[in-house]
Amino acid sequence: MHHANYYYGHAHILAKWCRLDEPLHPPRIRGYLQHGWNIGDGMAPGVPFVEGSPLLVWSEQTRRRAWSQGRRDAVVVGSPFAYLDAMDDDRVPAAERAGTIFYPFHGWEGQQVRGDHQRLIDELKAHETGPVTTCLYWNEYQDRRIRRVYEDAGFRVICHGYRGFWWRDTDREFLVRQLAELRRHKRVVSNRLCSAIWYGLLAGCQGAVYGDPMVLEDADLTFGGEPRLHRQWPEVYGHDPDPVAARRIAVAELGADVLAGPEELRTYLGWTRAGRLDQPVVV
To answer: Origin, by domain of life (predicted)?
Structure first.
């Protein structure tokens, strides 16, 4: 089982939905689970696949993109975040939501982002009302220089946690915290279209994508990069996009309209009683 299947506690959320006896120690997933939204086949570029293993993607849109690239083993299962949202009944009334949560475009262990955070702050202050929370990815959060720029602007600065890597340090509560934060805010904003925007829209926020999209070092532009994002999903760009149209797209991109029942999902993941791999991975 690929280690990325555990990122953000995804396997743990699906185990809870599947009503497994020990959801904190989920069995190995048979296949490759999409761990983030992208404009390709749902998988990270360069991942080597074991022939015959299914690609467990979030949506029919992603399955079609995978099919167009010659990947015939894609199966639509829905996103872990959509399952979490469906399981968590702690809804926050719209009248009690306040402010904006901002997700700057981020890098990861292998690639860093280059851009001017102060420019983003200036644009946020010009267009957002109420308090602003900046949620930094873990590697930017560890950089005191970046954190200080947002703190000095008067923004609340948080981090949802560490996604995990190579079966180590997986934060099972990552998406739980993210869902809670999104539900307390009125708006979700980013300078790039990303998973967090779709998550926020599904969680009831008004979403908006604007500002300098920044540059990722050695970015893979195979699928079209930022220009394609803007062309294909114009409904979420700008300072005040139509929230109804944007949420409709979010539901489709996250597979929230095609969530499987517990027994069906166990079959997709290889967690049936007869076919379930015998040893869980403890992370």
So the answer is: Bacteria
The pair of structure tokens assigned to 43 is 């998988």
220 contact partners, CB below 8 Å, separation of at least 6: 45, 46
* Residue-wise burial string across 70-108, b where 16 or more C-beta atoms lie within 10 A, e elsewhere: ebeebebbbbbbbbbbeeeeeeeeeeebebbbbbbbbee
How far apart are alpha carbons 56 and 79 in whole angstroms?
Answer: 9
Q: Domain spans of the chain? A: 3-87+256-269, 94-253
> Domain 94-253 - what CATH class?
alpha beta
CA 271 to chain CA centroid, nearest Å? 24
Six-digit token pair at 4? 């990325």
**Whether 35 contacts 14, CB under 8 Å:** no
Which residues are within 8 A (CB) of 208 and not within 5 positions of it... i.e. 6 or more apart?
Answer: 187, 188, 189, 236, 237, 238, 239, 240, 241
Hey, is 64 helix, strand or coil?
A: helix
Give the tens place of pLDDT for each residue, 10-46: 999 999 999 998 877 899 999 999 999 988 888 877 7
Q: Where are the alpha helices (DSSP H) in 188-261?
A: 195-202, 225-232, 243-253
Cα–Cα distance for residue pair 166/261, rounded to 1 Å: 29
Which residue spans within the chain are E strands per DSSP?
Answer: 32-33, 55-57, 74-76, 100-103, 113-114, 132-135, 156-158, 187-190, 206-209, 215-216
Tens digit of each residue's pLDDT (9 = 90 or more) over 206-232: 999 999 888 766 556 566 577 889 999
Q: In 33-156, where does DSSP find H-type helix?
A: 60-68, 80-87, 117-127, 138-141, 144-152
Q: Which helix (H) or strand (E) holds 174?
A: helix 174-184
